[in-house]
Design goal:
Order of helices and strands: EEHEEHEHEHEEH
Structural class: alpha/beta
Radius of gyration: 30 Å
CATH architecture of the largest domain: 2-Layer Sandwich
Strand content: 25-35%
Largest sheet: 4 strands, mixed
Strand order of the largest sheet: 2-1-4-3
Shape: elongated
Helix content: 40-55%
Low-confidence stretches: none
Number of domains: 2
Number of strands: 8
CATH topology of the largest domain: Translation Initiation Factor IF3
Amino acid sequence: MIRAAELRVVDETGEQLGVMSSDAAIELAEGKGLDLVEISPNAEPPVCRIMDFGKHKYLMSKKAHEAKKKQTVIHIKEVKLRVKTDEHDLLFKIRNARKFLDNGDKVKVTLSFRGREITHPELGLASLKRGIEDVKDVGTVEVYPKREGRNLMMLLTPIITKEAKKLQEKKDAKDKNK
């Protein structure tokens, strides 16, 4: 696949072999039982490296897998309310939201209006403000309450992420053992 007539060749140890014809470079690579891989096609002359391409692809996939393991996934949990949600039910929903925030997940709080309830958005806003006050020790408001059609929506984020919480728990366990 290498189309250039002359190439700058680097061997498997990283040592420069100099500029040579593409045929000579391919023969050299085949003589060692390895592949000739074009590293920098835009350079003048193009740079090629003698390497085991299968092993290179395997190492790159392992590196990508390790990077994927270390990334964090933040889930968005949703808590749905109504204007006429009773006191005990509201406390239950707030307790669930606190549990989600403790686990490091974001919480989307949706308050829906039905029928003529939409004429009193201040009642729904009061419920959401109460929810904010009840979870302010474990979460903060990322998106303040705003109207989306017949709904009021807000987004809460945890103050401490899952990873930070796990690290803190490990540190506390070590301190406890000492």
